């Protein structure tokens, strides 16, 4: 197969996978965010489920502490542990935990509205919020690794890889709760599951977890948008297709 034909084949395969693009189905509750309270979606927030305590004086809060990310639920998911890299699972999960917390902190610190001062240590400050998050799913991407690394370049395998693309997308899910630092009262609950964005050429997908990093960065941005949300304002969902390859 010539280089030109190979390039055309890969491009066609990648384009075909875009046809499978759709919003991920909500993840089953693991109980980190109280499922008896977190039952519904909010049309103004781009998460599967969202709840906030009514009649809260949000202007009284000007600080936020982002707690260590809980990954214990994800480590218990036996289906996730059947991946190709079982020996590295605990290291990968720890790296995802650190990446997630750093991404959220970075998003709040770079907020042009400076809505919250991010504090580094736990506090009982009555003007502070505590943000707690559990990563409950992280499925690494295999589509492009299959296409570029494992699949022989002939039509039968091409069709097989494309058909499998819908089940080989990266996905991630979380549950979160936001509490009053002084009283411990829960003020916000949220949960969401997302799949990777599609791109004509996906350089992020050539590593195991880079698409999940992208999902996490989107969530971080959305947390800040929710913090700055005006009454009646709708926060748009992230596009399922992107032109940039990273």
Number of beta strands: 6
Poorly predicted parts? 13-22, 148-166, 198-206, 240-246
Helix share, percent: 25-40%
Order of strands, widest sheet: 1-6-5-4-2-3
The tally of structural domains comes to 1
General form: globular
Mean pLDDT across every amino acid position: 78
Major sheet description? 6 strands, mixed
- Our estimate of the beta-strand percent is 15-25%
Q: Structural class, from helix and strand content? A: alpha/beta
The helix/strand order is: HEEHHEEHHEEH
Characteristics:
alpha/beta; six-stranded mixed beta sheet; 6 helices; 246 residues; globular; 31% helix
Describe the structure.
The protein contains 6 helices and 6 strands, in the order H-E-E-H-H-E-E-H-H-E-E-H. The protein has 246 residues and is an alpha/beta fold. It has one domain. The chain has a 6-stranded mixed beta sheet with strand order 1-6-5-4-2-3. The chain starts with a helix and ends in a 19-residue tail after the last helix.
What's the helix and strand layout?
Layout: H1 3-18, E1 49-52, E2 63-66, H2 72-75, H3 89-109, E3 117-119, E4 128-139, H4 143-150, H5 155-164, E5 171-180, E6 186-195, H6 210-227
Parallel strand pairs: 2-3, 2-4
Antiparallel strand pairs: 1-6, 4-5, 5-6
